[in-house]
């Protein structure tokens, strides 16, 4: 999407900054900055906003040869309205957009060049409409066929679909997912419905473990739970591991989850173990909250070490 970012209440007008937004493009840029080869498959309109999206991705070193430009639909639009220091409202204009008409043939083209080692998919794509849902289903099947590792970030967006519509799709996907990334409140969407008598443990860690267990039993290799300023906890067949968040001065929480995913997948692509994957993820997540914009503050590999430098540090 093209993104317009205001500086106060939208209805008062004023100037807006033009940029690019989208969970998958944020992850793609995050990974590219860390030195990985990334291809983005998505749809923009054949318009100037679409040109901005593709130009930005190209400038960030992301391969857009699998992207499509739809001559009959506009590029999706998102408005960011910082309403309070801690509260940003977003307004979507994406019904009928090119992204909401993403076709399976487009993702097939993205796969045909060279199948990826990892496919990253979010729960936003299937929420956009029947065509993107089919395209996402097709992508999952292609990834399986090519032996790619599948990472799914649930990213439930209540403005795009209801929990009742999301849950059956996500539950059907679970057996095809290797790395499932979710916030605490999104895990239930991926699980079989709970009976009325089911008891939830009162201890938060035990409650998370109880939700992760059935996902691991259904074949997910790693369940990674993003917990905001509390950090993240990963569950695997061998147990669980928690990493606290890196302390930073938070200026913009939007994009933290995507940056976290980029860090996690970067370490995974490097062949690093679980502890290092989580460590890089909380580091890139912290960069995102400490920087304005969704992806602009994403670190390069040499910059990873900048976090935690004492106030007033000047790097010469
Ligand atoms: P999402 O953006 O998907 O809601 P989170 O808010 O859980 O995801 O953030 C993802 C990750 O970013 C967290 O697991 C954490 O590592 C990091 N993070 C989020 N908020 C903060 C914060 N205030 N300070 C430091 N790190 C944070």
From TrEMBL:
Lineage: superkingdom: Bacteria
Keywords: Kinase, Transferase
Name under which the protein is recorded: Sugar kinase
Gene source species: Streptomyces natalensis ATCC 27448
Family, per entry: Belongs to the carbohydrate kinase PfkB family.
Matching Pfam families: PfkB (PF00294)
UniProt domain Carbohydrate kinase PfkB: residue ranges: 10-300
Record GO terms (molecular function): kinase activity
């Amino acid at each position: 999407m093209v993104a317009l970012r205001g500086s106060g209440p939208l209805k008062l007008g004023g100037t807006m900054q033009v940029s690019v937004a989208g969970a998958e493009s944020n992850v793609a840029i995050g990974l590219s900055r860390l030195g990985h080869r990334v291809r983005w498959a998505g749809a923009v309109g054949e318009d100037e906003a679409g040109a901005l999206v593709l130009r930005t991705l190209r400038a960030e070193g992301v391969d857009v040869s699998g992207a499509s430009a739809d001559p009959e639909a506009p590029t999706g639009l998102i408005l960011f309205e910082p309403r309070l220091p801690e509260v940003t409202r977003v307004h979507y204009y994406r019904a009928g957009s090119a992204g909401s008409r993403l076709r399976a043939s487009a993702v097939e083209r993205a796969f045909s060049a060279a199948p990826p080692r990892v496919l990253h998919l979010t729960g936003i794509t299937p929420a956009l409409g029947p065509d993107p849902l089919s395209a996402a289903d097709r992508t999952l099947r292609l990834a399986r066929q090519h032996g790619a590792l599948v990472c799914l970030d649930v990213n439930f967006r209540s403005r795009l679909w209801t929990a009742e519509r999301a849950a059956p799709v996500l539950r059907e996907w679970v057996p095809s997912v290797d790395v499932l990334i979710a916030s605490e409140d999104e895990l239930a969407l991926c699980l079989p419905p709970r009976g009325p008598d089911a008891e939830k443990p009162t201890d938060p860690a035990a409650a998370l473990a109880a939700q992760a267990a059935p996902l691991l039993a259904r074949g997910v290799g790693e369940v990674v739970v993003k917990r905001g300023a509390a950090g993240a906890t990963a569950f695997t067949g061998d147990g669980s591991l928690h990493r606290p968040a890196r302390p930073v001065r938070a200026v913009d929480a939007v994009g933290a989850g995507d940056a976290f995913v980029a860090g996690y997948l970067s370490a995974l692509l490097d062949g690093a173990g679980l502890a290092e994957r989580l460590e890089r993820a909380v580091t890139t997540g912290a960069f995102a909250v400490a920087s304005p914009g969704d992806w602009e503050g994403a670190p390069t590999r040499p910059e990873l070490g900048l976090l935690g430098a004492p106030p007033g540090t000047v790097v010469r």
